[in-house]
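Hello, quick one for you while I still have it in my head. A protein chain has come my way and I'm curious about its shape. I'm sending you its amino acid sequence along with the backbone structure tokens. I'd be grateful if you could look everything over and explain what you see. Here's the protein in full, and shout if anything looks odd to you:
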Amino acid sequence: MRIVIIGAGFAGMYAALSAARLRDIQGVSPDKLEIALVAPEPTLVVRPRLYEPKPETLTAPLQDVLKAIDVVYVQGHAEAIDTKSGVVEIAATQGARKKLSYDRLVVATGSRLFRPNVPGLAEHGFSVDQLDDAIALDRHLNKLSSRPPSKARNTVVVAGGGFTGIEAATEVPSRLREILGKDAQVRVVIVDRNEAIAPDMGAGPRPVIQDALRKLGVETRLGVGVASLDKSGVTLSSGEHIECETVIWAAGMRAAPLTAQIPADRDQFGRLLVDRDLRVPSVNAVFATGDAARAACDDVGNYALMSCQHATRMGAFAGNNAAAELLGVPTRPYHQKAYVTCLDLGEAGALFTRGWERTVEMVGDVAKKTKQEINTVWIYPPKAERAAALASADPERVTAL
């Protein structure tokens, strides 16, 4: 028997850990139940941190962890899924291709930034979505010091006033002053089509965010969108033109394209609709998790968000349940009633809220310490020690806040 997990992000990593944990508990050997993880590299990209400087350092190796728990790593890109025959087609290194059959498949392919057909976006826009994107932005920012001083050089426009856009925008002032000099006249502008900043955060936390933006000198343009980009800067739907040499696109996410190969229903973000076990109901032997799945967190209408907080726990349940079906033991319905947010606000600290109603619990330096602990400890892989790694993947305890 074989479980194939596609993706080495937070959901894929925890799916592998959790499936191996249940296999170990049931006393089943890796020869009888193989767990294979398919990804281009055996590396976790710490994606929530990609707005920070030196993004090339924001990865964590997985090879030793996978070896410790007897999970087979298969290097390559999963390019095709045949759900009728139960086969994944993989493009390996140097053009080689291989097919991997599965008895259970866990789709943990994550999400991608939504890039609409805005004139000039592909040529002139940056992002902090994937590791390569963040590295390109970091290199661009560091090269600005070699250019003649100008308002355009010192101006950054961030398209998107949600979680990612705010974290990127509030980090930029300190990053630019480190590069251009502490006395540089830096300008950062957030553009968002919504009438309020951080629309998903609600009214409670918004004053804290607005105060932080004021302290940092970050401007906002709300109720408008980006109409076009060119070498001179950004033109907004209002007709305003902002001279700038840096545009960071942070407006919207979609499930990774591979999910489209699963013959099943999906939501407006491309996420596969799953049942409480994270099974894709209309397709035999397929589970979806993390940003690839639209999953109910509870019985009152809350659904998992595209966040590592939800992906880690969803991954643990998906891996457990895929193994449980093959081992003939009961599955565990996914649930995640606890929900917190911790929004980095650059030199203005951070904002910590609890619950779906987003009650503010901590702000400023206190919240910043929590954010730093989350970013540098909590979301990293467990140590490559078999017992500890397996113990970390109990679905009921993963991300139990």
